Amino acid sequence: MSAERLDALTSWHADWAGLRVVVLGLSVTGFSVADTLAELGADVLVVSERADEEYARLLPVIGAGLWTGALDAVPAEILAHRPELVIASPGFPPSHPVIRWAQDAGVALWGDIELAWRVRDKVVRPDGTPADWVLITGTNGKTTTTSLTATMLVAGGLRAAPVGNIGVPVLDAIRDPAGFDVLVVELSSHQLWYLSLQTGPQPLSPHASVCLNLAEDHYEWHGSAGAYRDAKAVVYQHTRVACVYNKADDATRVMVEDADVIEGARAIGFDLGVPGPSDLGLVDGILVDRAFLDDRHTSALELTTLTDLRDRGLGAPHVVANILAASALARSLGVSPVDIRRALAEFRLDPHRIEVVAVAEGITWVDDSKATNPHAADSSLAAYPGAIWVVGGLLKGVDIGALVAGRGSRAKAAIVIGAERGEILAAFSRHASEVPVFEVDATQTEDVMAQVVELAIGIARDGDVVLLAPAAASFDQFASYADRGRLFAQAVQRRIGRDAGGRHDEDQTGPAGA
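RESULT FIELD:
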């Protein structure tokens, strides 16, 4: 009976009352799920190893229960609740004991995206239809492309919101009384794995979708490279209009070819080369669209130029690729080239994404702390060849050897930080022994970046770049990648300020002592 009931729950206006649901996790996503279900009248129990004080205070107010404690086994409280449905926050991997229990017991298992898709009709557009969805994933570039796409859509006159893994739960946008024309949904591989479990009669069907790239990451969560790839490929399933893929990353093309899409959906390629019909790319330094125009076999539409992008700090190759992907998504929804240019004139990269934090004494200091895996760091090193490379952290089971042997071998020097320094030092010894390598052995978080900067000052000369592109997660020594980047920038500014103060003192006292 539970399966039949769940199949009927495909609208906000369906009968959710009394549905017994266990929500796993009480982060921002978990709370949005609990809040939504409580509003729908479901019987909700939130289960979490720990609970944010504010969320814990709010749960009884909205009518949801809470149990906290160790989850290395299925707690009795879950069994007593007799859930018809479990909705898990993205942090719960397939190997988690509670996830395995739910699947073995035949209890329906969703993520927050499945719930959001089913209740997306709470607020509709003037024509009575819910907002279109655009889905964005990839190993790297998701957040930038999501922000770019939403900015372009708004410039084109559409009510659009960037949601999902970018930080704003989709369910919050679904319940916003103002409503939207388009939701631009950033999806992690974790969220996509849960989406792959869909069994309902109305699976998620986006207007357009993209997997920006595929590289090693999150293998510890998925269990294998194949499982990670399969999760990413879910983004293209049931796409209605445009499957956007990276021509420079063959894995994304294969995903599109294998996807079960709605008849009439087009494959739209992008890369930094000359585009063919149905592609976006570059011609003589001009970003052009040869996909969304009638005469695409002989004509192209200009979007912007590399010169303009460089002037705005958007000229790094991987950022240009993200702009082309976002443009393809926006064009699929009718945004004009003029509006795309206008959006790019206003757009700024988020902090910690190839962000120049200082230029002093001819040395440029760049914070790309968001480069949390080798693929992202590879793009950073491509933008700044020959940089003094600050690398290290938690490698998440990924081999860094290929990166060190490739672009890493062309670094002027490497400064290695983090708990897994040994693996990185060994990779340089094997693959790039000619690169000078310096190890930061500070154990206190507040000391790490100060030592990095002191080492870099001793190496750098006029014209050099010091690049923080760790190729690893931050949680070994920092609260987050943002915390890591912030402390790097602070250490740089302190050192520059100290140098400036010293020069000022010399200017004041030198002549008097002469």
